[in-house]
Amino acid sequence: MPTTWTVTARNLPEHASNPIHTDAGATAAGFPSALVAGVTTYAYLTHPLVAAWGLDWLTRGGGEVRFRSPVFAETQVDCVPTVLDDDVLVEAVCASQSVNPRVTFRAVRDAGPPPAMRPGEALASRQFVLADRLGADYGLRVGDDLDLYVRDGLVHPAVWPAIGNRIMSADLVKGPWIHTRSIIRHHAPGPAGATVDVHATVVDRFERHGQRAVIDVLIEHEGRPIATLEHEAIVDLTTATV
After folding, report:
1. Largest CB tally within 10 Å, which of 49, 114, 129, 188?
2. Is the dihedral of CA 97, 66, 150, 36 positive or negative?
3. pTM, two decimal places
């Protein structure tokens, strides 16, 4: 079964494209220091699951991640799993902070078949190559030391919400923004170096601590789904209350 794993949170240089992941941008938005990218915290929360379940979870698992409070750069994060019936709840706990957990991930062993894309505002379809910043070494670069990805030529599961973030940043965001929640389903492992087709639809827009958007995302390889997401973010922080 999954066990607790500890890591020091870090941002990568490319995360600075979102000002919230820099000290200057975060303080301008009302935070004390740089926020760690949500996909990085998600990467940490997957570590206990992949360490326990390996390729099986990367092939058909998934779950819902919720970003409740920021994780700040250079803080220690304990990824603490708890078995709940058929699910496992993994919580990001920062002992240096008074409010915990900071992030939760309710994971399932079997996420089921790909759901149908819901009606809404269709965004431009795109292709991404699962290499470089979206490659097999994403986990290693942020501190997830599992060797499975590079050894077996598979992308890290954090690449799927990272692609969702690229869609958000290209089409929807206005200045600094925050990834708040995702439901992520795996339908096949992601082969490193492959080209994937990505389709997205805006299914909701609303106000809560800023302007939010929810998108459905379908990621396909050679015409077959390999991951699907429901991806939510605050896309405009100008009206946010911190």
Report:
1. 49
2. negative
3. 0.93
